[in-house]
């Protein structure tokens, strides 16, 4: 018995120490064969480009940031209604092509206190678009201009589709004063919504991932556009918010979690 309790104590001590010293990392299991960035690359780039490339917050405050990618879409207003009711602010990584389609939804999200960020113009793997700066001009800059037109500013934060950025692109973002925001908890809502045709089952699967892997200062990846629609994600959000609040978590936006500005101070002039 004594030996066992010593082992347990040892484990507790090492877990405690690990918490204080562990580098940022992806906590959720990797979904194979779906074209997403491998966890080892995420972890390496987070370590190598600390200060520009983030998976989670820097400390252990009981604050978490829910994030939604790919929108806005016809599903987004229902999500905004829910977030308003719960008084929860989130971060949206939106595509320029969608921003142009739903400018009213963009203005509403901003008016209701959410943070807006750049998720490319139409969702290519940016790391494959190196030549001639196309990745920047045709994808990120085009979306910065879409935001400029709709809300009058350009965001500081971007998230690469599927997580892919090559090292020179990350360095280039550094030079532009922009931050790459990845995630520590991938809800895999895109996968579970595809696997489960019933919204209830898909929602349960999404909830279970987040429940199991949520941690202090987590950045949680979800989607408000694409697939067969995002009702399961919205349902999961509606159930998780009260539950996580009860556990003592506070919801915040990524810029506040990381203590960085949400808007670029001096936007480059439009060409
Ligand atoms: Zn995306």
TrEMBL record:
This is Peptidoglycan/xylan/chitin deacetylase (PgdA/CDA1 family). Residues 1-20 form the signal peptide. One of its GO terms (biological process) is carbohydrate metabolic process. It comes from the Bacteria. InterPro entries: Glyco_hydro/deAcase_b/a-brl (IPR011330), NODB_dom (IPR002509), Polysacc_deacetylase_ArnD (IPR050248). Keywords: Hydrolase, Signal. One of its GO terms (molecular function) is hydrolase activity, acting on carbon-nitrogen (but not peptide) bonds. The keyword Hydrolase applies. Residues 62-252 form the NodB homology domain. The keyword Hydrolase applies. Its EC number is 3.-.-.-. Coiled coil: none annotated. Pfam families: Polysacc_deac_1.
């Amino acid at each position: 018995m004594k030996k066992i309790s010593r082992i347990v104590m040892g484990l507790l001590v090492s877990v405690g120490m690990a918490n204080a010293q562990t580098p940022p990392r992806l906590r959720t299991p990797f979904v194979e064969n779906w074209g997403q960035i491998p966890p080892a690359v995420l972890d390496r780039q987070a370590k190598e480009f600390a200060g520009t490339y983030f998976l989670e917050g820097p400390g252990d405050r009981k604050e978490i940031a829910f994030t939604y990618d790919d929108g806005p879409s016809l599903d987004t207003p229902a999500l905004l209604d829910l977030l308003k009711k719960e008084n929860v602010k989130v971060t949206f990584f939106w595509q320029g092509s969608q921003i142009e389609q739903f400018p009213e939804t963009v203005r509403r999200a901003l008016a209701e206190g959410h943070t807006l960020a750049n998720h490319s113009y139409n969702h290519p793997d940016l790391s494959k678009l190196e030549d001639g700066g196309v990745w920047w001009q045709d994808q990120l800059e085009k979306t910065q201009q879409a935001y400029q037109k709709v809300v009058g500013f350009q965001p500081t934060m971007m998230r690469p589709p599927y997580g892919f950025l090559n090292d020179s692109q990350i360095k280039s973002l550094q030079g532009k004063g922009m931050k790459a925001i990845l995630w520590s908890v991938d809800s895999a809502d895109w996968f579970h919504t595809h696997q489960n045709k019933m919204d209830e089952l898909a929602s349960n699967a999404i909830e279970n991932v987040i429940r199991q892997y949520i941690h202090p200062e987590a950045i949680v990846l979800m989607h408000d556009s694409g697939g067969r629609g995002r009702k399961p994600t919205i349902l999961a959000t509606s159930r998780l918010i009260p539950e996580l609040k009860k556990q003592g978590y506070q919801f915040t936006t990524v810029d506040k979690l990381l203590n960085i500005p949400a808007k670029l101070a001096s936007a480059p002039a439009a060409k």
